[in-house]
Write a structure and sequence with these properties.
Strand content: 25-35%
Order of helices and strands: HHHEHHHEEHHEEEEEHEEEEEHHHHH
Distance between the termini: 40 Å
Largest sheet: 7 strands, antiparallel
Strand order of the largest sheet: 5-4-1-2-3-7-6
Helix content: 40-55%
Radius of gyration: 30 Å
Length: about 450
Amino acid sequence: MGKVACRKISGGLLFLLLATGAFGQCSGVVNYAINRPGVVMIKTVFSANVYVRNMKIDNLRFNRLLDSIQRIDTNGIVFNAEQKLDIVLKEMNSNPTRFFKTNNDYIKQAQEITATGTGFFITGDGYVATNSHLIDRDNAFIRRHFILSAFQQITDANISALESSWATTFTEQQRSLLYNTYSSVYSRLFSMVLNDLKKTVYVVYRKDADGKGPYSETKAASLIIKGSPMPGKDVAILKIEADSNLPTLRIAHGQLPRVGEQLYVYGYPGPVTNNDFVSAESAIEPTLTTGIVSAIKNSVNGWPVIQTDANINHGSSGGPVCNNQGEVIGLTTFGSLENTGGLAAGLNFAIPVTILSEYLDSVDVHPFASKASVLFNEGVVCFEKQYYRRALASFLKAKQLNANFPTLDSYIQNSRASIAAGLDTPDFPIAYILASIALLIIILIPYFLLWRRKRK
């Protein structure tokens, strides 16, 4: 794992360089272990009042319809109750404006919709990076979803009222027909007015209660700065109130990644988060997908975007894309569409952290690793190398700084169990000898360079 942990570690730096193979690559297991705690879910909650004109059935025309069905019975064609109901519903569906009428009364329907995505902590005191489109939905999107939600609730209420007044229970086919009828009526006759729109952005992240397992913490976030949704620079910086030892991810510096490099992508894909067979308690666990850098393209506005074949879905927007040193190199942002309108698999794009850095610099926010993350990462590296005593020492120090650090309790328990089972790899004196030599070299390098400069 070398690079990501070793750059974050002070006292144990040289030991870890030796233990991990001097700036080697970290496995997917370690990548997930060190980055998972700092990945968060972004929830943007829109609330509003939707005013809808009241709808009533035209009783005169409806009774004429019932009379016509009754006359068919007297002419020798006999229908049972369900068949008569089918005839009524089909006729109402064929001529919806004939059987429904409006009045000047409005129904006030309080509505709330939630858009979810992904983000990650970039500082220990609560700064979060994500996509701006998660918190900056356009008016058409908001209106469409509010009206659909209001229609769903009002239609359900109307259908229940019909079942009650007609003393019947509709079949699924009949309910579907009624939904189509009401949809046609509302689109033609009934206007919906949206008022009192409010928006609140929340950051949801995992904590571990001492001895009680994981739970979710939800905090309202303030917007520090944002760009514009694609094709703009789709970046936003949020801030929550917190101490200085939240789990953080490390931001990569320097050039864009090279085509072919391994990538690790974190997020909360909707098909998983909203899956009926997955427990609500585990919804806060991010999904990890892997892939490579497929290409470096330019956006239509000329700045670079990273193409990847990693599997990404709705809900993962704003999530971190990490290299094999565990550093964030981009934010998952947009995909490609098939001719059918669905997302094309394996053709996704991330905004590079160079764009993120522009916004951070403009508001004077400087990403930093919290002390708890430094110690936790050191512990993970030692744990994977079976230096369980060293791992335990780091984990216990991290716990003093953040007792609720995600997955920390599990690592402490496993470290103690491994030590009790005699599985700890002892430290060899040669490691300290080599570490001392390396430290001496690092100390002497500046003096050597200064000596050479003076000689010249």
